[in-house]
Each structure stands twice: as structure tokens, then as C-alpha cells.
Amino acid sequence: MPSMKLKWRARGARRMIEKVKVYPYPVQVQGTPYYLVEYIKFRQPQGRAVIGDPQTLAADVPRAHEILFHFYALSEKIQTDGRMRAAVQIDFFKKPLDLTEDNPHPDLQAGRKQLSKMLQLQLRYRRAYDRFQETLQQLEQSQEPITKQEMEQAEYTAGELEVLQYDLVRTIADNTEDLGGYIRAAEKHGHWEKLTKSQQVFLRQLIKNESLMKQEYQQMDVSRNGPLEERIDKQADKMRSYKHRDQKEEQKLLRVLS
Fold it and tell me: How much is the pTM?
């Protein structure tokens, strides 16, 4: 974590009524930890700087900024895209499957197949998101700088979550008939009332916005063909240049700190 002395130094490029935010995880360049600094006014970012501890060497700033910008941009993407999706309750998928596990009725089977696939995708989505949160906690606790390992994990996690989200949305949108048939069969065979109200609402919502979900996954820029692991690797490769143009533009406008 940045020291109080470094936080005070970061105020050196602050302008009137701006607040100063020093990001917690540094990167090490030539043996010196560098931190990303953000200046905020009325809750809106006004500018950024890179500051070294104990001193800032101008020659190191471009490399430090490149790594810091990339890591925090990916972290923000993972948080923004993943927080709500990872929080979807596993029981929304698992409970309907458990209730009908030993049920031989053929009218339940197509829907069960899709729910089972969705459960596996959701479990992996949550594991990927949680692993990255654990990495951030470890960085904070250890006070160690971001390394190549954390950077690669951020790239892989961002790519993994995008592919898994694509597969989840497509599974739902392309199989609303099967899911609707499952609901009707669960009602018919006496399973529906064994679900909680929130579980019932969740299942009904899955089949309500078919056209919007189809539009969503069709517009997603992800690898669509081939084995899952290969597709995730390809998406992770794309993440290595995530917001590259924004990083170069921001670097030109960095505020100078000594």
C-alpha cells in the first residue's frame, strides 16, 4: 500500500478542489515501485500521474504507466462486467435440477440438459471471478508489486469471463423453447411449487427476453468456434491489447510529479 509520505507527494500535481486517489498496487521498474495516481473533481476523473517511491524517474514513467494502466483497466472490466453476474445464486440452476434428477418424464429432459449446461458455465464463471478477487486481496496484504503472473491472470480472467458470458447468453437465447417446456412440465408433474418464489421468477425471466439476448450475444466480440479452452486463450490474447489506444493517449497527458 502507498505510504502517507507518497500520498502527500501525489498531491503535488493536484489542482483546485480535486481529490487525490493513489491506486493500491504498484509495479516495479528498475527496482523502484511506481503507483498510479488519479485526480478527481465532482466524482469525475480529471487527470492521472505516475509516482515512484521514493522518487520518480522520468525515464521509467512510460513503462510503469503502460503496465499500471493495463492492469487497472482489466481489473475494472472484470469488476464491472463480473460482479453482478458472478453473484447469481447457484441454487437458481441447481435446485430445479435436483428436484427432477430422478424423474423419468421425457418432457423434462430437454430443459434439464440446458439448465445443467448453464449451471456448469455459471460455476466456472464464479470460480474465475472469485480467483481474481483473491489475487487482489493477496496483492493488498503482501504489499508486493504487480508481476507478470498477475498481469497474465487479469488478461486470462477478462477473456474467460467474456467467453463464458457469451456461452451463457447464447444457451438461454437459443433454447427458450426447451426452458419453457421445462417450466410447463415442472408445473404439470408437481415440482414447480417446491421451488422458492425467487427461483420461479428467475426461470421465467430466462425465457422472456429471447430477442434481446440473441442481439446481445450476436454483438459480442468473442471467439465462437472451437473447444472452450482454445476460445478462452484467443480471447485472452485480445485482452493483451485492451484499451491500448486509450493508454497511449492518457500517457501523453500525464501530470508531472517529481
Answer: 0.93
Q: Whole-angstrom Cα distance, residue 76 to residue 240?
A: 15
C-alpha cell at 5: 509520505
Whether the CB-CB separation of 97 and 116 falls below 8 Å is answered with: yes
Closest CA to 167 of 209, 228, 107, 251: 228
Q: How many other C-beta atoms are found inside a 10 Å radius of the C-beta of residue 154? A: 25
Q: Strands, DSSP E only, in the chain?
A: 19-22, 27-29, 32-41, 44-52
Q: How far is CA 222 from the centre of its chain?
A: 15
What pLDDT, in 10s, does the model give residues 41-88?
999 999 999 999 999 999 999 999 999 999 999 999 999 999 999 999
**Strand, coil or helix: 245:** helix
Domain map (residue ranges) of the chain: 4-62+248-252, 68-242
Mean pLDDT of the chain: 95
Closest CA to 96 of 225, 199, 212: 199
Q: Which residues pair with 50 in a beta bridge?
A: 36
What is the Cα–Cα distance from 64 to 67, expressed in whole angstroms? 5
Alpha carbon of 79 to those of 52, 102, 128, 136: distances in Å?
26, 38, 12, 11
Q: Look up cell 466480440; give the residue.
A: 221
What one-character-per-residue DSSP string does 105-119 give?
Answer: -GGGHHHHHHHHHHH
**Per-residue pLDDT tens digits for 190-218:** 999 999 999 999 999 999 988 889 999 99
Question: Which cell numbers hold the place of 189?
Answer: 408433474
Backbone angles phi, psi at 257, to 5 degrees: -125, 145
